[in-house]
Each structure stands twice: as structure tokens, then as C-alpha cells.
Amino acid sequence: MSRHSFHAVFLCGALGLGLAGVPTASAADVQAEQSQPALRVTYLLYSGRPNPVVLVTDPEQVRAIEEQLDRALASGERVTKAESHAVLGYTGIQIERLGATARNSAPLVLRGDLLRTSPSQATVSRDVAGIEDLLLQWGRELKVLGDVELSVIRQTR
């Protein structure tokens, strides 16, 4: 067997193992994207290591969060605001829609009363702070956020 044939067989075998159900975060995300609507909630805390993430798949929870986001967008004031420079520490909570209906949906980032819908567009609403508090509490309950992370968030809010 030539060296190139061996590499091709090895690569195909490795890809086959990866697609055959070996549990990985990306495999779970792909499954969520192909099935019912879901939300990926990422707590933006770190610059040099992975951020804590929660995958929301319960239809009632997804609907409740979506309704709160819609309410904040409808009641808030739209502003043009450039993204702030990169800073260390907490920079917000990113919400990504997953599933077949969310293919063209951009991620949302919320922090305080600001809901960023694009790098230069945002909505200011008091409702956003309530959503942020709810998601932070939820992160703590699910044990993806501990006392250290919540302390960093409180200091930079």
C-alpha cells in the first residue's frame, strides 16, 4: 500500500469514526441544528479558554426566551453603536438560534440593558437586563457558572 493510500484510508476511517456517533460537542450541536429549534447560550467570560455554554432544547424554555427577546426588541430603542474594543472579563451572553428555522439568524449578545443584533446595531431596553439576570441564574443552577465566574461578572457589569 502506498503512503498516499494509507493516509486516505486512515483519514476516511477517522472521519467514519467521528460520524459514527463518537460523542463530541460539535456532533451534539449538529444534531440540535437538524432537529427542533434550540438555543446555544454562551457566557462570554474568557479570552484564552472555552466559555461556559448551555444548550437549551426544551421547547417551552426556548419559546419563553424567544418571547422575552422579542418583547425587548419591540419595546426598546434601536441604536447604532459600534462594538466595544476587546476587554478581558465578562462581555455578555451570546444567544445563537439552532435548528432548521434559524439558518439565517445572527447571534445576539446581551449585556446590561443592551441587546446587540449586529456589530453596529443594538436595542436598549430594561427587559434585556431581566433576561441577562435570568440566564445568569440559570447558568448557576446548571453549574456552568460558579461563584468565581459570578464574581467576575458582578465586577465588570
Any idea what the shape is? globular
Q: How many extended strands?
A: 7
Which runs of at least 5 residues are low in confidence (pLDDT < 50)? 1-27
Helical coverage, percent range: 40-55%
Order of helices and strands: HHEEHEEEEEHH
Strand fraction equals 15-25%
Structural description of this entry:
This protein is of the alpha+beta class and 157 residues long. 45% of the residues lie in helices and 21% in strands. It has a seven-stranded antiparallel beta sheet. Helix 3 packs antiparallel against helix 4. The protein is globular.
Give descriptors for this structure.
157 residues; alpha+beta; 7-stranded antiparallel beta sheet; 7 strands; 21% strand
SSE order and pairing:
Layout: H1 3-19, H2 25-34, E1 38-44, E2 53-56, H3 59-75, E3 77-80, E4 92-98, E5 108-111, E6 114-116, E7 121-124, H4 126-141, H5 147-156
Antiparallel strand pairs: 1-2, 1-4, 3-7, 4-5, 5-6, 6-7
Give a quick precis of the structure.
The protein is of the alpha+beta class and 157 residues long. The protein has five helices and seven strands.
